[in-house]
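Whiteboard transcription, Tuesday session. T.W. wrote the C-alpha cells on the left side:
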C-alpha cells in the first residue's frame, strides 16, 4: 500500500484507520493474508500418493476413498502385515492340504483303473468323474476357508494403459500357452509312447464343463493367483512370486505328474497376466478357455 502524501489534505489522502501504535503491515505480509490456504493432503490407502483432502477418488490410481473407520481398520491391517502377520504360514498349510487331496485322488483313481482293467469294468470313466467331483468339492471348501483366514495385501494397481495392454495381449498369450500344452502332449505321446486318451467319456456334458473348466478356473485362480501370489509378493519380487506360485500351481496337479512341467509354464503366463491386468477376471477367463479347448480336443 502506498504511503499517503503528507502534502494533501486529509480528505484527499489514502488513509486507513489503525489503532494507535499499530504498525502498517508489509506488502508481502498483506499478500500472504489475502492468499488462499494450501489444501490439506492425505495419503492414498492404495498407491500411497499425496491427494487433496475431500476428493472422492485418487487421481493417480482411481481408488475410492473410504470412511475414516474403514481406513483406520485397513491401516491396522497393513501394520499387522508389516510386523509379520502376512498369512504366509497359513497359506502354505492350505497348499499342503490341497496337495494332500490331490495325492489321495491319484491313489484312489489309480486303484480304480487297475480294478477296471482286471474286472473289465466299462464304467471306469464314470467312476473317475465322480471321484473328481468329490475331490473338487473338498478343494473348494479348503479354498473358501483359506479366503476367510488369509488376507493377502493387494497387488499394486498398474496404470490404465498397462491394464488395457494386458487385455489386448491376453489372446496371443493364451494361444501361445495352448500351443505349448498341445505340443507337450504330443512329445509325451511320441517319445514316451503314451496314448493320448480322453478320460471324460464321450461327449461334452455340463458336468464335464463344470468340473474341468468352471471349477478350476474359479477356485484355482482364487488360491494361486490371489492368495498365493498376493502373499508371496509381500516377501519377494514380482518375478519370484509369479514363479513360486506357478510351481505351487503345477505341484497341486500331482495327480497327473507328467503334466506338472507344462502347468508351471501355463501358470507363469497366467500369473503375469494377473499382475499386469490387476484383475482376477482375466486369469479366470484364460484358465477356463484353456481347459475347455483341451477337453474339446481330448
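and on the right, the sequence the group agreed on:
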Amino acid at each position: 500500500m502506498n504511503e499517503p502524501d503528507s502534502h494533501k489534505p486529509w480528505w484527499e489522502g489514502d488513509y486507513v484507520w489503525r489503532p494507535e501504535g499499530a504498525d502498517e503491515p508489509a506488502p508481502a505480509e498483506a499478500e500472504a493474508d489475502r492468499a488462499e490456504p494450501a489444501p490439506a493432503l492425505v495419503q492414498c490407502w492404495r498407491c500411497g500418493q499425496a491427494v487433496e483432502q475431500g476428493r472422492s477418488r485418487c487421481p493417480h490410481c482411481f481408488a475410492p476413498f473410504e470412511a475414516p473407520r474403514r481406513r483406520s481398520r485397513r491401516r491396522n491391517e497393513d501394520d499387522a502385515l508389516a510386523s509379520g502377520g502376512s498369512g504366509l504360514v497359513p497359506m502354505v498349510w492350505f497348499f499342503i492340504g490341497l496337495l494332500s487331496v490331490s495325492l489321495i485322488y491319484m491313489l484312489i483313481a489309480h486303484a480304480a483303473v487297475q480294478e477296471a482293467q482286471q474286472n473289465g469294468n466299462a464304467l471306469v470313466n464314470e467312476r473317475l468323474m465322480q471321484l473328481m467331483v468329490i475331490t473338487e468339492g473338498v478343494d473348494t471348501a479348503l479354498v473358501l476357508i483359506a479366503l476367510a483366514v488369509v488376507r493377502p495385501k493387494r497387488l499394486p494397481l498398474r496404470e490404465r494403459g498397462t491394464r488395457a495392454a494386458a487385455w489386448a495381449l491376453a489372446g496371443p498369450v493364451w494361444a501361445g500357452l495352448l500351443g505349448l500344452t498341445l505340443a507337450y502332449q504330443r512329445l509325451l505321446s511320441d517319445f514316451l509312447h503314451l496314448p493320448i486318451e480322453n478320460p471324460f467319456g464321450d461327449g461334452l456334458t455340463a458336468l464335464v464343463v463344470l468340473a474341468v473348466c468352471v471349477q478350476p478356473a474359479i477356485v484355482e485362480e482364487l488360491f494361486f493367483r490371489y492368495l498365493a501370489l498376493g502373499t508371496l509378493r509381500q516377501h519377494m519380487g514380482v518375478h519370484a512370486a509369479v514363479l513360486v506360485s506357478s510351481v505351487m500351481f503345477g505341484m497341486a496337479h500331482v495327480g497327473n505328474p507328467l503334466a506338472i512341467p507344462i502347468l508351471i509354464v501355463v501358470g507363469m503366463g497366467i500369473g503375469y497376466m494377473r499382475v499386469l491386468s490387476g484383475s482376477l477376471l482375466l486369469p479366470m477367463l484364460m484358465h477356463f478357455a484353456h481347459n475347455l479347448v483341451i477337453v474339446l480336443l481330448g
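Someone added at the bottom: Residues 67-74, 76-85 have pLDDT under 50 and may be disordered.
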